[in-house]
Amino acid sequence: MRTHIALLRGINVGGHGKVPMADLRRVLGERGCADVVTHIQSGNVALTSPADDDEVAATIAAALLEEFDIERPVVVFGRADYLTAVAANPFPKVTDPKQLHVLFRAGPPPDDHERIAAALAAERAKDGRGDAVARGRTVWLHLPDGLGRSELATRISARTTAPDQGGTMRNLATVRKLVDLLD
Known about the structure:
Blueprint: E1 2-8, H1 21-30, E2 34-39, E3 44-49, H2 53-68, E4 74-78, H3 79-87, E5 100-105, H4 112-125, E6 131-135, E7 138-142, H5 151-156, E8 167-171, H6 172-182
């Protein structure tokens, strides 16, 4: 059995995409996943399955659609890949979870560097202090002024990621908690 972290985008946010976590755990168990644990109500799942990451993502996406009538991207990382991604944090001195976010993606878009450079330029034009670094399937965002007012976050966010790349953002506190769930 392999251990996976699954990140569901747009679950239980702003009254949309309602999925009770107890129901999600039950449904995933019925579809062959084991040891299913969720963290908070926003679609953070740790589970075990003999399937690979892509198969787990497809299983969860199908469950969301068939059981809850919700179509959402699902990003899945195997245990080792998730821990490697977290260890690659380019901003280790940032400890405030409101200032550090990670965009997790199904795959890296081909225009990553150009897109980040353009987003950083837009941030600087607004006198923003944010920074972003792409590392494999993640983009780390240091947002000293917070997520809500950041031009950088808006341009890098999952909403502007190509649909086939699927992506969802988590703050540092959630990223760390998911590491704990793997242990």
